[in-house]
Amino acid sequence: MYDDHNREAEGRLVMKLSDGRELPVEMWKTRIVQKINLVPVADRLKAIEEGGYNTFLMKSNVIFLDMLTDSGVNAMSDNQLAAWMNSDDCYAGSMTFYEFEKAVQDVLGLKYVMNVHQGRAAEHLIPKVFSKPGDIVPTNFHFTTTRAHIEILQCTMPEIYKDEAMNTASKYPFKGEMDPEKLNAIIKKNGAKKIAFVRMEATTNLMGGQPFSMANLKEIKEICVKNKIMMVLDGSLMCENAYMIREREKGYENKTVAQIVKEMCSVPDLYYMSGRKNTCVRGGCIATNNEEIFLKIKPWLPVYEGFFTYGGMSQREVGMMAVGIREMVDPDLAGATVRQIKFGIDKLVAAGVPVVTPPGGLGIHVDAGKFLPHVPHNEYPAGALCAALYIASGIRSMERGTVSMDRTPDGVERMSELELCRLACPRRVYSQSQIEYAIDRLTWLHKNKKLIKGLKFTYEPPVLRFFLGKLAPIDNWGEKLAAAYKKEMGPV
Ligand SMILES: *Cc1c(COP(=O)(O)O)cnc(C)c1O
Questions:
Q1: Model-level pTM?
Q2: Cα–chain-centroid distance for residue 109?
Q3: Residue 259's domain is classified under what CATH number?
Q4: Which of 58, 187, 353, 360 has its CA 20 to 30 A from that of 103?
Q5: What is the DSSP string of 261-283?
Q6: Is 277 a catalytic residue?
Q7: Which residues contact ligand 1 via a Cβ below 6 A?
Q8: Which of 277, 342, 347, 427 is catalytic?
Q9: Using an 8 Å Cβ cutoff, are 141 and 304 in contact?
């Protein structure tokens, strides 16, 4: 069923309605459901207070739509659950691993593969093997766990995106691109030997799932080849990138997502991913066609992850991931979130709510800096907007702004260039009406934005502070917002 790529040309994901509108239609049916709950606004206020105005610290029984992340919360398919039952549980030599290896070879076109327990385990192993203190790892955009691992090893990770990337109201289709001139300048200034590797992330998670073009990936690779620098691709969100290349890059209109994914994987020297995103399973992998690179990493796998036929995952997960790899290039899956996000973004733009454009592949990103211009940058506008959205809707979003930036090693606060409130769209999880609800509550908040003020830390952990940090609202604005909501919208 998933091999039928002819369907792609039909563009069935977007139904044209008879009145001319376009509706993204889900190409699956629901066979198992989980009940969710919308608690009254008074309870929501209590819950966010208990969670220290940090959406990470809330229990799921008070969450209505959980749009914190797309990580590990995507809906699996019937075939993945069947693979769970059929997996071959053994420590060494499991046939399930070899099925996974075959899927990687077929879909990614990469010969050598090892599992790791999550994406960040790959981010632990790769720089451990390929960098030394003082090295540089240029990247199109950082990811939280990537940067933490690079900096623990006393390396630096400059982000060399193009200027357009920071324009939240942009029309540029490939904001995830690396700037080749900036890369050349870094190589010239420091020498190629100081560059441990160049890292490209497809799509850029913290930028809102913005893609890069194939042309850019290849241009950067050329620079790497010329300077004998290794290129690493973080492909955790690669299928959405491939789908947007198909939609936006000249020459790719008639290629399938499967073909584009394979072409992308043929460019870097080394590939890794978190399976929690595109393959809808907990786990990850590292893969390459370069045997020498592979053999440098492989001996370290049993030290940190496990024997090479399971790499820190259970065989059940390896089996589900083998199916997930084959399914992830299905345009109905790769394009589903892209379409859903576009639907939301178009409506929010029309309602005057400042959101990141063009739509990316990960979620709806609200520009909290523009949404709350009266909240100073050092009072965390994105964190405040996430808390406010929860109070007004029961929707859990994620702060992607200054709270998500750790201080420099000298203790200076790093101001994020973007203050985003991210409503992630987990794959195949939320329906069209639920997205409409989110749009409505964001619009209501925008009309009442003056009620929202800033936050201050009451507990600040030393690393990845956004996970466990606690904050408090300045001037008790949470209570005032909840009261205004109740007055206009009722107790729920
Ligand atoms: C999620 C993610 C990671 C980390 O993977 P985990 O499985 O959460 O450890 C790394 N890079 C990108 C781009 C991601 O989206």
A1: 0.93
A2: 23
A3: 3.40.640.10
A4: 360
A5: HHHHHTSSSEEEEETTSTT-SS-
A6: yes
A7: 71, 118-120, 143, 145-146, 201, 205, 234, 236-237, 274, 276-277, 284
A8: 277
A9: no
